[in-house]
Write a structure and sequence with these properties.
The chain has about 650 residues and is α/β, with parallel strands linked by helices. It has a domain of about 120 residues: ANL, C-terminal domain (GMP Synthetase, Chain A, domain 3, 2-Layer Sandwich), CATH 3.30.300.30. It contains 20 helices and 30 strands. A 7-stranded mixed beta sheet has the order 5-4-17-16-18-19-20, with helices on both faces. Strand 19, helix 15 and strand 20 form a beta-alpha-beta unit. It binds 5'-O-[(S)-butoxy(hydroxy)phosphoryl]adenosine. 5'-O-[(S)-butoxy(hydroxy)phosphoryl]adenosine binds next to helix 12, strand 20, strand 24 and strand 25.
Length: about 650
């Protein structure tokens, strides 16, 4: 039975427990329904109310939603604010400067506490240093840093002076970094000498040097380097600067740059089904608002809670639920540099125990791999740690299978913590469809119901609603404040990717398939409907990996598909035709390793194919079109039952199927 089938047959229901509902921001289904009704009856009024409640405005907005240039929507456009002021100053001004903002735990276990006052000082110093280097409002700054306090400081310092940051995950290659630097038109790059992961120092600065040397990013004047390990790095005089040196003599006072609500807060690249990764452009007010509001609704975050989101700041989850959401509401959060398996696979549970974490947010892939580890070694099983402080658990990034959900619920949550399975995307800025911990009866594997104000629906290929129980295309019917505003530098692509004409041009196309339960209306996500793969919760375009493969001089042709994987959700399978004869045996193994490393260098290790199969050709129709659905079956090791009569070269199927 596939994961989706098992969710659709899932009959277990976990009603909210009394202690989760007591005092919760949304304390029951009645409260939820009241908010949904409020949003339905006065959509703009609903959003205006929470925007006034959640954010501190330098200049109040008078307009709410402007649809006159649809699908280029604006929200609260004439309002002015600063995201960094909202995340830092206002808490310090309220007398909360000594509260912990960040409990940072390094790879080696060293713990550092950073108060709101400390964080504000550090952000202001770096902001002043950036200004001195000529970085100004509207400029783009690329951040290529490990998980660190400095990462959060860098993001906040940019937005303090009105610069727009674009964070590139530290696992991306020099080529990927170069493409992003060029596309976004960066004027500065903030990186580190090295990063520490699992006890090992890995390069960053040298990769950044390669990225800059690859050309096209001559606008980058300054490369600011955070000294993490003290490892040796090459130095370009006049360009490279040590972070600790440039902030040393800066003032800890920096007046925030007040920007329009619509000013770009950040640009974050993500994979699409075609072409290069898209620069997803987010607005200041809308994205900050929803990050803050969902901290309250989805995580029911209250004073005294310790929040821990295990994502990296290189992904959207680390933006909304590390760098912005928790700080906007003045929370205390754990920020972790390392990996879940070092020095042992109980690290997460040990850290929850050590820091008395109350709300824990991670990815299904991490849970699945830790299940395996704790089955093999009782010492790293969650039961070997005191997890009694936990009250809410969350998952994000990919579907969670009911078995993993149950394990998480019983072993990490002791049967007492609601699990919020949050469906959302880089483009949505924050949670969209998710249970509410004090209200929603939970069904393992279902992300349940949309948040108030989010008009999610399932439609057919023409944009018409499908009845519950019938699968279809997941869309959002009305614009919402934290939605992306554009694809950086490519408005046409924004329009065609997200508001396609076939659906009428007004529905936001998420790119996922979904089905709603007949009785409850609960949503179950059925995975991407485009050529995007989800490996360990990371998005990869099949075309990007194919382009990387064919850029290798040995490769004539390549096709990439996904295959279900017990741990990573999906795994990358590549079908490759070489320019030379089809390799076999050891030669095939050796070339596969070479190509895997090649993809790692071209894109990043996350994109490396798990399985590479060589053929003399690919299955094609007589008109030359690659039949991907056949490749998907071959990748899974399935018997080919489809009609292959249109295939030019049916014999190829045996070759590609056997190649395992
Ligand atoms: C895609 C978005 C959400 C932030 C991290 C990933 C998949 C995400 C869930 C979930 C089932 C999910 C979807 C979506 N996805 N959350 N709870 N259940 N699928 O952001 O890299 O932009 O990827 O991740 O396929 O479209 P992203």
């Amino acid at each position: 039975m596939s994961a989706i089938e098992s969710v659709l047959q899932e009959k277990r229901v976990f009603p909210p427990q009394a202690k989760a509902s007591a005092g919760a921001a949304i304390s029951g289904m009645e409260a939820y329904k009241a908010l949904v009704a409020e949003a339905e009856s006065d959509y703009e009024g609903f959003w205006a109310r929470i925007a006034r409640e959640m954010l501190s405005w330098h200049k109040p907005f008078s307009k709410v939603l402007d649809e006159s240039k649809a699908p280029f929507y604006t929200w609260f456009e004439d309002g002015e604010l600063n995201a960094s002021y909202n995340c830092l100053d206002r808490h310090v001004e309220a007398g909360r400067g000594n509260d912990n903002a960040i409990i940072f735990e390094a790879d080696d276990g060293t713990v550092t506490n950073v108060t709101y006052q400390d964080l504000l000082d550090r952000v202001s110093r770096l902001a002043n240093a950036l200004k001195k280097r000529g970085v100004k409002k509207g400029d783009r700054v690329v951040i290529y840093l490990p998980m660190s306090v400095e990462g959060v400081v860098a993001m906040q310092a940019c937005v303090r002076i009105g610069a727009t940051h674009s964070v590139v995950f530290g696992g991306f290659s020099s080529k990927s970094l170069n493409e992003r630097l060029v596309d976004v038109g960066a004027v500065a790059l903030i990186t580190a000498d090295e990063q520490m992961r699992g006890g090992k120092a890995l390069p960053l600065k040298s990769i950044a040097d390669d990225a800059l040397a690859a050309g096209g990013c001559e606008k980058v004047k300054d490369v600011i380097v955070y000294q993490r390990t003290g490892g040796k790095v090459a130095w370009t005089e006049g360009r490279d600067l040590w972070l600790h040196e440039i902030v040393e003599n800066e003032s800890n006072q920096c007046e925030p740059e007040w920007v329009s609500a619509e000013h770009p807060l950040f640009i974050l690249y993500t994979s699409g089904s075609t072409g290069k990764p898209k620069g997803v452009q987010h607005s200041t007010a809308g994205t900050l608002l929803w990050a803050a509001q969902t901290m309250k609704w989805t995580f029911d975050m209250k004073p005294g809670d310790i929040f821990w989101c295990t994502a990296d700041i290189g992904w959207i989850t680390g933006h909304s639920y590390i760098a912005y959401g928790p700080l906007a509401i003045g929370a205390t959060q754990v920020v972790f540099e390392g990996v879940p398996t070092f020095p042992h696979a109980g690290r997460f549970w040990e850290m929850i125990d050590r820091h008395k974490v109350t709300i824990f947010y991670t990815a299904p892939t991490a849970i699945r791999s830790l299940i395996k580890a704790s089955e093999a070694d009782a010492k790293v099983h969650p039961k070997s740690f005191d997890l009694s402080t936990l009250r809410i658990l969350g998952t994000v990034g990919e579907p969670i299978n009911p078995e993993a959900w149950m394990w998480y619920h019983e072993n990490v949550g002791r049967g007492q913590c609601p699990i919020v399975d949050t469906w959302w995307q880089t483009e949505t800025g924050g949670h969209m469809i998710t249970p509410l911990p004090g209200a929603t009866p939970l069904v393992p594997g279902s992300c349940t119901l949309p948040l108030p104000g989010i008009m999610a629906a399932v439609v057919d290929e023409t944009g018409q609603d499908v009845p519950n129980g019938q699968g279809g295309i997941l869309v959002v019917k009305r614009p919402w404040p934290s939605m992306l505003r554009n694809v950086w530098g490519d408005p046409k692509r924004y329009q065609t990717s997200y508001f396609p004409e076939e659906l009428g041009g007004k529905l936001y196309l998420a790119g996922d398939g979904a089905v709603r339960d007949k009785e409850t209306g609960y949503f179950t996500i059925m995975g991407r409907i485009d050529d995007v793969l989800n490996v360990s919760g990371h998005r990869l375009g099949t075309m990007e990996i194919e382009s990387a493969l064919v850029s290798n001089p040995m490769v004539a042709e390549a096709a990439v598909v996904g295959r279900p994987d017990d741990t990573t959700g999906e795994a990358v399978v590549a079908f490759v035709v070489l320019k030379r004869a089809r390799p076999e045996g050891d030669e095939a193994k050796q070339i596969a390793t070479e190509l895997r490393n090649w993809v790692g260098k071209e894109i990043g290790p996350i994109a490396k194919p798990k399985d590479i199969r060589f053929g003399e050709n690919l299955p094609k129709t007589r008109s030359g079109k690659i039949m991907r659905r056949l490749l998907r079956s071959l990748a899974k090791g399935e018997e080919i039952t489809q009609d292959v009569s249109t295939l030019e070269n049916p014999a190829i199927l045996d070759q590609l199927g056997e190649a395992r």
